[in-house]
Amino acid sequence: MATRFSAAVLPLLLGFLLLQGAPSRAADTDTVVIGRPLSGRQRLVSKRGKFALGFFQPAESSQNWYLGIWYNQISKHTTVWVANRDAPVSDPASAQLSISSDGNMVLLHGDRAKSPALWSTGVAGIAPSSSTVGVLLDTGNLVLADASNTSVVLWQSFDHFGDTWLPGGRLGRNKRTGEVTRLFAWKGYDDPAPGVFALELDPNGTSQYLLNWNGSMEYWTSGNWTGDGFTGVPELKAYSSSPMSMYKFGYVDGKDESYFFYDVKDEAVVTRFLVDVTGQIKFLTWVESAGAWILFWTQPKAQCDVYALCGAFAACVENELPSCRCLRGFRERRPLAWLQGNHAEGCVRDTALQQCARGGGVQGATREAKNDDGFYAMPNLRLPSDAQGVVAAASAHDCELACLGDCFCTAYSHNGSCWLWHGGLINLQDTSSTATGGNSGTIMVRLAASELTSPGRTKTVIIALVAVAAAVAAVTVAVLVSAFVLRRRRVKAQRRVVEGSLMALTYRDMQSVTNNFSDKLGGGSFGSVFKGSLPDATATLVAVKKLEGVRQGEKQFRAEVSTIGTIQHVNLIRLLGFCSEGTRRLLVYEHMPNGSLDRHLFGSSSSPGHGVLSWETRYQIALGIARGLDYLHDKCRDCIIHCDIKPENILLDDAFAVKVADFGLAKLMGRDISRVLTTMRGTVGYLAPEWITGTAITAKADVFSYGMLLFEIVSGRRNVEQRPDGTVDFFPSTAASRLLDGDVKSTVDRRLDGHADIGEVERACKVACWCVQDEEGARPSMGTVVQALEGLVDVTMPPVPRMLKVLGDPANYVKFFSGLPST
Ligand SMILES: *[C@@H]1O[C@H](CO)[C@@H](O)[C@H](O)[C@H]1NC(C)=O
Ligand SMILES: *[C@@H]1O[C@H](CO)[C@@H](O)[C@H](O)[C@H]1NC(C)=O
Ligand SMILES: *[C@@H]1O[C@H](CO)[C@@H](O)[C@H](O)[C@H]1NC(C)=O
Ligand SMILES: *[C@@H]1O[C@H](CO)[C@@H](O)[C@H](O)[C@H]1NC(C)=O
Ligand SMILES: *[C@@H]1O[C@H](CO)[C@@H](O)[C@H](O)[C@H]1NC(C)=O
User: Fold this and answer.
1) Would I find Kinase among this entry's keywords (predicted)?
2) Which ligand has the minimum distance to the alpha carbon of residue 333?
């Protein structure tokens, strides 16, 4: 089966063409010598200006200064190495990098005579007679070298990476000393101190890389090196095996050391490999025109596969931002860091547990009579793997007593046998909205009694229910029913709070409408979508979108939402309501029984119930999308650019009529939209070049995406596919050349067996080709597209866009696709 790439064609291509080195500033020096230290705002700049070394602050809000190396020629300050990772200075003016009397490079602060060096290259036994210098090289490597011959390197930063592995560096193991070079993630985005996540070559001597947590728990492995790739990372094979690859990558198993190296063949390519604060390894390339680092590859792919990502007493939630949520009865230990995506410190109790006499036995013999701590049941969680005790307790009640009787016990779980946990609960994952299921269970978390009885919290109701259930089952049913009725009543009451024609709902209502987000329909661009039903007479089905990463404030959000609510067109999805509560933002849409277009276009024949879409239906779908977009662009009060046209955002009702979804969301998400889009998986292949070149975005960007989509509607396949032999096939290039050859018949989905109106196919191909013209001005408006597809205007033969020509050459595919992750 063909593999689909997360088509990063355009940024890759354009980025490649547009990367240009700025002229270097000749005035800067690249060397520290004895008697000429570096201090304050002074910097070292490498010879050709690529890297700079100096004092910097990791965040605007930070009080701390660090000595570090960063890219000197890109518009975003990106640190690649830090000397004093866990010893910041408060004032760079009183700190200096210099050569000490023993020949080492040192970082001093304050009174030099008295205070010890904050950081030193620490080379022992440098001959007193030789003088040394520190030099910053164009590779980003800082070396301590002999002053008379700088090829004699005594120490180099490439042997002491921080979180970033730069091209030209080696990551490996010294066989004589057993020493391994590790990449340690930063502790937080504003704190370069070594965090808990690290990447290293297996210290046991195999050729696999391991990601570990706190020096022990391994949560990801690359698999062993096979000569041209890792067993666990098949997609990286293309890097090393393809002669056209931009990268050289390999493993050297020598006598004294074994290591991996990687390098870029073209110096203009700015690329880095790092272990991120999120515990994932990331391979990024700078695209100057986008002003952003584009993510090529990351592992582990699922954020929640990172061990203990959320620290203690928090659960990881996949595909949500933030990825971590404190358990009930706990709050973030460091709220600010939490917001910045650093969750390692976890959560702390709202209310302390009762003091209990230390030394209490596990068997409950010394159980405190007064201890009235309680337990709160949390279902659908991946449980911590570090249970401290397994007690052969017969019943759940015995298990509870065993935990209560143990001062250190913080939770238990009973599933036949009784599991107890001490201390912070780590590595929990909320599995309620993931398909994994299997490894999850219910954990009973110990909380102070007051936490369990505090009023106004829904979950207390559930606790109460559990208790009742144990006693009288019949009563439970009654309570359940009344709770259900109560919830429905409340939703009804809320629905009277109407904004324009929209329902404003609370988060609790949303939970009730979606049955606590239990039926996930899909993961869209801006958040996951869940099925639900309104508590009205007909139980209207709805789709609830949980937005992620919304930066907008409440007021602006409401304003945007009510604008979207006023947009009504037969080919646009109806917004019915919304929820904006705290940081939570949700949208309620009408539900479309036939789901999104991608399922019908690309759905494998093995998935039952999905017949191949007929040509007539496809043509109507193409027209419907065009009409919907035309309305958005020209016919409503405020012109809306959709920004994210792709098959996943085209929904189909029960009669396969088109409803374009997700319009207006680009604006809702706030300013960072281009960044969001260009780094989003599965979106990039549809993006117009102007997203990358940074020129203003107009409605013509949607026209481009529409053209890309139209090609897929004709062919019934993704535009970018890998052939079984490994080469990549870019369908729009093929279609454009067949169009010129007068052979449009062969572009149509083979599954249709030629049942297609060839006149319409030709018209659709021409329109698609016009839509993806390089220059915005050459692309038609959506109104013109509608007329063309309706046959009201003639369509002339389009010129083949430059981009299609470039990507029509298989050599370029290899160059631009090698190593991209398959999805
Ligand atoms: C500098 O050192 C390198 C490596 O030790 C050596 O090959 C080279 O000949 C030396 N150059 C001079 C000018 O001494
Ligand atoms: C390395 O060796 C130790 C001790 O033999 C073992 O416990 C550990 O699991 C090994 N690690 C890997 C990744 O194989
Ligand atoms: C990390 O490991 C050290 C010992 O190596 C231990 O003292 C510390 O508690 C661990 N950290 C966490 C968060 O468990
Ligand atoms: C890598 O090779 C070693 C022995 O050479 C083996 O023990 C280990 O399981 C292999 N790792 C993987 C992930 O296959
Ligand atoms: C009970 O839970 C433990 C720990 O999570 C797990 O290892 C075990 O397989 C479970 N047993 C059953 C019967 O589900």
Assistant:
1) yes
2) 3
